[in-house]
Amino acid sequence: MGKSAKQKGLGNKEAYQRINYLYQAAHLCLQQSPSNPEMCRFYINTMRSVAEKHVIRMHPEIKRSICKKCCMLLLPGITSISRNKKKGERYTVVSCLECGSVKRFPWGKNYQLWVEKPAAWQPS
Amino acid sequence: MADDKSCTEETLYSGLSPSIVSHGSKLGLQARSMRQTDVVKSYLKRHLPANRLMANEDNISRRQVHLSRTVKKKKFDLTSQKKKKLTNRERKGMKVFKIPKENQSYSQQLPLHQAWKQYMEEVIPSSSVSSPGAVQAACQKVVKAELQGGMLTVQRSKCPSYVGVCGIVMQETRHTFTFITSSDKVKCVPKENSIFALELHGHIFTIHGSHFKVKAGERSSKKFKSKPTTDL
């Protein structure tokens, strides 16, 4: 099982490299010209479609920094606002400044992402 | 006014804690050189209605607001939350990905090209393309690699005015490449009926645009078959 998983990982290496490059390129574009975010958006959109085609799980940290609606990078204070809410279950609200869409990320005591669980890193 | 300035710079924004600074310098991290004012200005320009921007300055015109006025809370609307993604047609209508032709500069895209070079070095190390057999393998990799950020030249084309256009690729769609040339001009060249050249580690790879008509994201998972070359 472990062997096949390794081979699969190697086969997708180029896709991972491409995703890595596109994510960095999007950051660079936004840094270079904040007045036109179109290129940044296009790179993020391409990155997403590459990941979709190769059936790659993007890390939650990358996934959470992308607006689902307009494909914009969500940098707190620059392209997004993040506020903590404490009613009932605790969560953070991140709203995109470009299109106004909202993401909610819970962070309560018992909340755990799949990546943070030890089972995610063990070969099944 | 002098007091005001010191207030905003020193007291409002305190620096990072010394432990973070020392740790960052050990790792070789650099501060992001994005200027806050640029971001704010460009954001305001795009989002505010024209009559709220002052004529000469970039400031916003001021408006009096009564703080005592109570504002009704909006009810949480479920219907607006249901639809999260935009459809392709909506994206086209909103011009989400359309790059404006004005105010683009070649020098701004140069860092992107440097990043692309690093990425290509990672995908195809320059030591690996010494033998002719290895070049064949590299060709397969080039086809599946990212081209946005790379330097392309139009080698041959059915339309003579496209020939010789050279620049950094800003956008790759299914049917076109969008270049920015060294004279700060944005040019959109169709892939159909033209041949592009890509220089890498001293080798020149030719790309037949007519066989290359795939979306940028889907290209890496598509299988390319060898086809007879087309006459232009």
From TrEMBL, chain A:
Database matches in Pfam families: Rpr2
Cellular component aspect of the GO annotation: nucleolar ribonuclease P complex
Cytoplasm is among the record's keywords: yes
Listed PANTHER family: RIBONUCLEASE P PROTEIN SUBUNIT P21 (PTHR14742:SF0), RIBONUCLEASE P SUBUNIT P21 (PTHR14742)
Keyword Metal-binding among UniProt keywords: yes
Keywords tagged on the record: Cytoplasm, Endonuclease, Hydrolase, Metal-binding, Nuclease, tRNA processing, Zinc
Protein family (similarity comment): Belongs to the eukaryotic/archaeal RNase P protein component 4 family.
Organism: Littorina saxatilis
Protein name according to UniProt: Uncharacterized protein
GO terms for MF: endonuclease activity; hydrolase activity; metal ion binding
GO biological process annotation, one example: tRNA 5'-leader removal
Automatic annotation (TrEMBL), chain B:
Swiss-Prot/TrEMBL GO biological process terms: rRNA processing; tRNA 5'-leader removal
SUPFAM superfamilies (alphabetical): Rof/RNase P subunit-like (SSF101744)
Keyword field: Nucleus, tRNA processing
GO cellular component: nucleolus; ribonuclease MRP complex; ribonuclease P complex
GO MF term list: ribonuclease P RNA binding
InterPro entries named among the record's database cross-references: RNase_P/MRP_Rpp29-subunit, RNase_P/MRP_Rpp29_sf, Rof/RNase_P-like, Rpp29/RNP1
Subcellular location per the Swiss-Prot or TrEMBL entry: Nucleus, Nucleolus
Subunit structure: Component of nuclear RNase P and RNase MRP ribonucleoproteins. RNase P consists of a catalytic RNA moiety and 10 different protein chains; POP1, POP4, POP5, POP7, RPP14, RPP21, RPP25, RPP30, RPP38 and RPP40. Within the RNase P complex, POP1, POP7 and RPP25 form the 'finger' subcomplex, POP5, RPP14, RPP40 and homodimeric RPP30 form the 'palm' subcomplex, and RPP21, POP4 and RPP38 form the 'wrist' subcomplex. All subunits of the RNase P complex interact with the catalytic RNA. Several subunits of RNase P are also part of the RNase MRP complex.
Summary of the function given for this chain in its UniProt record: Component of ribonuclease P, a ribonucleoprotein complex that generates mature tRNA molecules by cleaving their 5'-ends.
PANTHER family reported in the protein's UniProt record: RIBONUCLEASE P PROTEIN SUBUNIT P29 (PTHR13348:SF0), RIBONUCLEASE P SUBUNIT P29 (PTHR13348)
Assigned protein family: Belongs to the eukaryotic/archaeal RNase P protein component 1 family.
Protein name: Ribonuclease P protein subunit p29
Natural source organism: Littorina saxatilis
